[in-house]
Amino acid sequence: MSKLKRSLTSPSTGLRAEAVRTRVGRLPDAPPIRLFLVDDHPVVREGLRSFLGADSRFKIVGEAVSGEEALSLVLRARPHLVLMDINLPGMSGLEAAARLRRRAAWTKVLILSMHDRGEYVAQVARSGARGFVLKDASPSELVRAIEMVHAGQTWFSPQIAATMFKELTPADRVELSRREREVLAAIAEGASSKTIARRFAVSLSTVRTYRDRLRRKLDLHSIAAFTEFALRNGLIDPRRAAKKRF
């Protein structure tokens, strides 16, 4: 049994001891990182609560057992970071992560799951989650992942990083600016160039320049292709996806 799995099911005294052993340097007056736990298994939530709650660097500010519940409670709890399982009743953790990216930009999502299959790894990156830790990781890796993601960086367990890179398409690896993402989303929703120009208060020629740039960068040549890319990367709500083509 892995160290993390063992810790999540051990008596709370053992968890507190493990928390002390995994501590690293931090500013003594730094406020705790506010954590929100999302997992439908009570034993896992209890283990995480006991382990992380015993560490003064962290504060558990809420829990949820489903993606839908997480979306409503996170807006009130305002955590710095959400620890999210993938397989949840109803809405998946990946869909919940994508929606949180749009509705709660102040919080970051770290996926904590037992699944390391390639399709999950790629979807985690596309959902907007900032990291992915396997449940068989060590407690010290979990703590490190939380700290890195909270600091604005990303963390993927070493054994799945290579799989993630293989699963991403070349287009998914392209870096887009904020305005490029906004224009791409508008195109994927079927907005005309004139509508996009009015929405962002730019000229029609500027919108055409963005369209041409996105076509070249992403090798996408139809609204269907833009829509598929935007949906895959969590840039638009599926209900607003465009149905027509260029």
How large is the radius of gyration? 20 Å
Query: What does the largest sheet look like?
Result: 6 strands, parallel
Which CATH top level class of the largest domain fits? Alpha Beta
Q: How large a portion of the residues is in β-strands, by DSSP E?
A: 5-15%
Uncertain spans, ≥5 residues at pLDDT below 50? 11-25
Please write the string of helix (H) and strand (E) elements: HHEHEHEHEHEHEHHHHH
Q: Output the CATH homologous superfamily of the largest domain.
A: Response regulator
Q: What is the helical fraction, as a range of percent?
A: 40-55%
Number of distinct beta strands: 6
CATH topology of the largest domain: Rossmann fold
Distance between the termini: 54 Å
Examine the secondary-structure arrangement and name the CATH architecture of the largest domain: 3-Layer(aba) Sandwich
Write down the oligomeric state.
single chain
Shape: elongated
The main sheet orders its strands as 2-1-3-4-5-6
Averaged pLDDT, please? 81
How many alpha or pi helices? 12
